Amino acid sequence: MAAYTEEEIQHSLRDVPEWSRKDGSIERTYTFNEYLDGIQFVNKLGAIAEEKDHHPYIGVDYGKVTVSLTSHDVKGLSARDFDLAQRYDEAYTNLED
Ligand SMILES: C[C@H](O)[C@H](O)[C@H]1CNC2=NC(N)=NC(=O)C2=N1
């Protein structure tokens, strides 16, 4: 899978408006009322990463989980990053279920 062009990146970012471009990555911080709620969410992110065979950088702070996505194999952003970003946003939206 090839790295996305600038045009493809700009187009794909519209589908994940909460995510920001950070150099060769995209990033989003999810917020939580409790530290352990964030940790539980990290476990979900990990399970989805294994399912998709695409793995994020994850940073955990009090009430915050920051996710950064890039495609190491193509040294840039690819469809896999944007697919995973959408899955993660869905998982966050559905947390109450
Ligand atoms: C063999 C396996 O598909 C690769 O090593 C995968 C695993 N997860 C990965 N995750 C990310 N973010 N980038 C990769 O290039 C990558 N490669």
From TrEMBL:
Keyword terms, alphabetized: Lyase
InterPro entries registered for this protein in UniProt: PCD_sf, Pterin_deHydtase
Gene3D superfamilies in alphabetical order: Transcriptional coactivator/pterin dehydratase (3.30.1360.20)
UniProt superkingdom: Bacteria
CDD domains noted in UniProt: PCD_DCoH (cd00488)
GO biological process: tetrahydrobiopterin biosynthetic process
Enzyme class of the recorded protein, top EC level: lyase
Assigned EC number: 4.2.1.96
Reaction(s) this enzyme catalyzes, per UniProt: (4aS,6R)-4a-hydroxy-L-erythro-5,6,7,8-tetrahydrobiopterin = (6R)-L-erythro-6,7-dihydrobiopterin + H2O
GO molecular function term, any single one: 4-alpha-hydroxytetrahydrobiopterin dehydratase activity
Cross-referenced HAMAP family: Pterin_4_alpha
Family of this protein: Belongs to the pterin-4-alpha-carbinolamine dehydratase family.
Protein name: Putative pterin-4-alpha-carbinolamine dehydratase
Source organism: Pontibacillus chungwhensis BH030062
